[in-house]
Design a protein that fits this description.
It comes from Bartonella choladocola. It contains 10 helices and 11 strands. The chain has 300 residues and is α/β, with parallel strands linked by helices. It folds into 2 domains: 86 residues, Leucine Dehydrogenase, chain A, domain 1 (Rossmann fold); 133 residues, NAD(P)-binding Rossmann-like Domain (Rossmann fold, 3-Layer(aba) Sandwich). Strand 5, helix 7 and strand 6 form a beta-alpha-beta unit. The longest helix is centred in the N-terminal third of the chain and has 23 residues. Bound molecules: NADP nicotinamide-adenine-dinucleotide phosphate.
Length: 300
């Protein structure tokens, strides 16, 4: 049976470190990390995510400002708010919750955030730094950063000689995690919806990262015995066994079958999900230190 990489426990350790370093920053330098979270519209899942980011930020001792904008807010008004926050000395990180309403170009908005306050790590400058190996100087997107902490937990920092397969090529997860695995010396393959014989590709992986968004797509017999399996997917599926109309969360990996074969595995829920928020807090603390020319605390 695989060793389970407990994302809840790992994320709590990171949050405790962020909280401790924030207290030191406030005491020694009178600096309080500040995060601004902008949400446009009424998407219920986005509201839940934003509430939990706000709660974690407050627990860490951050200034946390939430901007809840009407669904009909114009792109120009949203860009004006982002520009105002770019200039705000008390705000070190700006996060615009996605998805945005269809009439707003999300890319325009993200590229308007100052790269120095881009704690989601989606700005071209930060994406470019990650692709060129200037990772220490970048804001690394939170989910890929959390995935790397989990991989390191199982395998250590140097992945020399290991084959990694990332299933999914999104800008938010697949591409940046592939770049981070490459920087850690893994030999990386990126698979996607046009990949042929994807089951065989997955079978070659010592490290398999599934970021697809298809419930339990990766089967137990796609996994190399002893592999490290990181399941990023969050999929809500019907759960009639819990009662009529009830649902449950599953990942992109058939967990029950995979845990019998893998060496390390992350559960859903309680795996990558909690790590994402913890890394957002770590990025915000880093942004506050960078803005004040202070050394970056070691968090993970
Ligand atoms: N735990 C967290 O904190 C966290 C954070 C972000 C995302 N997620 C979850 O992770 C999953 C992926 O998110 P995302 O934003 O990366 O999704 P996305 O932007 O929809 O990308 C999905 C990727 O999967 C590929 N794909 C789709 N169907 C496939 C198939 N049958 N075989 C192989 N590849 C296939 C797509 O290929 P093409 O490019 O060819 O279309 C695409 O590259 C979702 O379930 C999401 O909810 C979790």
């Amino acid at each position: 049976m695989a060793n389970v990489i407990d994302g809840k426990k790992l994320s709590e350790d990171i949050l405790a470190k962020v909280k401790q370093e924030t207290a030191i920053l406030r005491e020694q330098h009178n600096i309080q990390p500040g995060i601004a979270v902008i949400i446009v519209g009424e998407d219920s899942a986005s509201k839940v995510y934003v509430a939990s980011k706000e709660k974690r930020a407050e627990e860490c001792g951050f200034l946390s400002n939430k901007y809840e904008l009407d669904e009909k807010t114009s792109e120009a008004d949203l860009l004006a708010l982002v520009k105002e926050l770019n200039e705000d000395k008390n705000i070190h990180g700006i996060l615009v919750q996605l998805p945005l309403p269809a009439h707003i170009n999300a890319d325009h908005v993200i590229q308007t955030i100052s790269p120095d306050k881009d704690v989601d790590g989606f700005h071209y400058i930060n994406a470019g730094k990650i692709m060129t190996g200037a990772i220490g100087d970048a804001f690394v997107p939170c989910t890929p950063a959390g995935i790397m902490v989990m991989v390191e937990h199982g395998l250590g920092k140097d992945l020399s000689g290991l084959d990694a397969v990332v299933v999914g090529r999104s800008n938010i997860v697949g591409k940046p995690v592939a770049a981070l695995l490459l920087a850690a010396n893994a030999t990386v393959t990126i698979a996607h919806s046009r990949t042929r014989e994807i089951d065989d590709v997955c079978r070659s992986a010592d490290i398999l990262v599934a970021a697809v968004g298809k419930p339990e797509m990766i089967k137990g017999d796609w996994i190399k015995p002893g592999a490290t399996v990181i399941d990023v997917g969050i999929n809500r599926v019907p759960a009639p066994e819990k009662g009529q109309g009830k649902t449950r969360l599953v990942g992109d990996v058939d967990y029950k079958a995979a845990e019998k074969v893998a060496g390390f595995i992350t559960p859903v829920p309680g795996g990558v999900g909690p790590m994402t928020i913890a890394m957002l807090m770590a990025n915000t603390l880093k942004a506050a230190c960078k803005a004040n020319n202070l050394p970056l605390p070691k968090i993970s």
